[in-house]
Every structure is written in C-alpha cells, then in structure tokens.
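Lab meeting, action items carried over

1. Structure of the two-component assembly. Owner: GW. Status: complete.
Input record:
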Amino acid sequence: MENKRKIQDELFAYIKENTFKETESLTSDTMIFTEGILDSMGFALLLDFLEQNFKITAEDSDLVEENFESIDAITEYITRKNSSLVEK
Amino acid sequence: MDKIPFHKEILKINDIEALVEQIARKIREDVSGKINRFGGVIGLSGGIDSSVSMALAVRALGAEKIFGIMMPEKDSSPDSEQLATVLADKFGVSTTVEVITGALDGYKCYERRDQAVKDIVPEYDPGQHKMKIGIKHEGSGSKLPPLFYLTVVNPDGSEIVKRLPTKQMRTIIAASNFKQRARMSLLYYHAERLHYAVVGTPNKHEVDQGFFVKYGDGGGDIFPIGKLYKTQVYQVADYLGIPKEIRERTPTTDTYSAEQTQEEFFYEFPFEQLDLLWYAYENKYDHGEVGSVIGMSEEEISMVYRNFERRSETTSYLRMPPINDYIFI
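Predicted assembly:
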C-alpha cells in the first residue's frame, strides 16, 4: 500500500510538472487523456518516464486505455509490470 | 439557418467553373493588388496539391507569369520530378530543378536523422535499409493519443518496427523538416529574384490539422487550395485537366527513403472518409446522423470528433503567427 501511494505521488508530481493545463482539480481518477491533461506528446513522454523511472518496458499490447486512462490505472499497471515495487 | 441533411455527396462541387473562376480572380487580386508582385513561383512535387495549385495560378495569371521549381533530394521518388515535368509541359510553365541534397548535407539533415534511427535500430545502415516513421493508434476505439513508430525496411523487404521514444522521435522529425524548410528558402530565392509571390500548396486538411512544417511547406504568400477538401481538390484537378498519372497517384509524404502514404503517416482515414468526417466535425453534425451515413457507430464518431478536436488544438501553434503584442510603452 505504502509503495502504491509513493508511485501515485510520483505520478501526480510528474503530470503536474509536464502538463500545460490547470491541475488543481486533478485527482487519481481524472481521465487524463479524455480531459486533455496530456496530449500525444504528453503520452509519449509519459511512457519514457514510466520506463525510466519504474524500470518497466511498455509492450505494444500494454498500450490500451485501461492501463493509462488515469493515475489510478497507471499505478495499477506499474505494479503489475514491476511487482518488486509492491510490498511483499 | 438549418443545416442540410448529412449525406455522402455533401462535398461535391456543383459548379466547378464558377469556383475555379472565383479562386483565379482572388489569386489575381492578391498577387497584384495586395502583395504587389508580377507573378508566382511554386514548388512542384508531382502530387495532386501542387499540380492543382499551379493550374489555378496559371488560370489566374497566365503560364508566362508562373515559374515552377522541382526540388528533389536523395530520398525523393524519381516519379516526383518526372510527373512535375509532365504537368509543367502540359500547362506551358517554365521550370527549373534545384537538387537540395547538398544543402541538406550542409544542415546534417541525414546525419542527424540516421543517428537517431541507429539509437533505436543499431543495425540500420542508410546505404542498405530504407526507413520511415508514422503514427499508430492503439485500437480504433482507444481514447489514448497516437504514438510514433519507426519502420526500418530490410533489403529483403522485411520490416523492423519499433515505437519511438520522444527524444529520437523529435530528432527524426526536426531533422526531416530541414527538407521542407530548405525548399521554402529556395522558393523565396526565386520569388525575390523574379519579384514574384510564393504560391503555397497546402490543402484544407493540411492547414486545419497541422500537417505541414512551420516556415516550411506551411509558408508561402497565398494558399489557393487552402480551403478545399482533398476530394474537392481531385474534382478541380479533373476539371482543369491535370494529367491522369498525377490524379491517380497515391498521396505520399515523399520525405523518407521508404515509401509512405499520407494516410499512414498522419491522417489515419482514407481521404473520402476523412473529408466527410472533418466536414461533419466542423459543422457539428449529430453523431448518429453522421455514423449512419458513414457506417460507424455513434461512439466511434464521438471518438473521431474528440481526436479531431485534440489535433486541432495541439497543432494550433503551427498556424500561429509570431506573437507580437508586447505593447508596454
């Protein structure tokens, strides 16, 4: 749980730093692409960030809405991809 | 005013002669009355857009006032120059050929691009392989934005396809954009030498969706087909007698060494469908009405509208002139 929270915090910080939109109302279940928080460059940069920061490799088959639509979804995706990030 | 019901022929031009005459009159007024130039220079690629733009400019100003420039480089298809020559001969337009490979070498266009490709596919050898980049949507119903992929084509025709990290994606695009900017530089050289205007060739989709290089092919002084949908460009082409081999050629980017259609690189829909969808989006037609005509669900049309909106927004910077309202004194 502790680590999931840490991942979420890192994602919040990353998105706030890298969007050009207002993020005051950003929550963990905000639909970040539907709401236009991240655009296509934002998506590509997010994938770079996830791969570098959380030591995962996003396969083409992973690139579906369910894995990236919100901070909650990305957190779940990261913990599935790299189980070492989650407390045993 | 009530909108006419959406239908498949909604973009058909009913009176092409009248439209052509209106465009020609405006070209004359703009070139002579607003820009104060004697004629027009135009880059000829052998594609449908530059061909129709040239034919309209000829209609407006006369062939003797139009100067066509072919600007091939080492990745260009040989068809481009040959078809442009056929077109210019048919319309009696004088041309010159400016090979820009040397200029691009000077900018290190190929070197910068190829290094970025090698970062992703280390075995890439520009002497042996061909390459291209393009966008791919993850599933037709996905709300995720599209991503760029690199394709390296082996000598045997097999392909290596990799998703592009942003650093290499931006480097490849930025390096490739030297091509359009080198061409625009040459067009202005000839325009200034002749005291002519530069006739730009983007169509409505290119302008509105941002499929152009800022200060490259997005430059120019007038855009005669800038408000025409692609299928309308073809209708005008037919009317003006653009050679059949140009009308039947698949629109390509002609930017990368591997062949690549514009649909594959950017648009994601065939032009017949794209035109109708963009028209429907711009004119705010009901999702269900459009879907039933095009053969898509309401949900799909909604997704298409959202993607168009996103594209329009993310490319608005390209259409923006330099911001110059720094009025503080």
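2. GW to write a short summary for the group page. Key points so far: The longest helix of chain A spans residues 2-18. Chain A has a mean pLDDT of 90.
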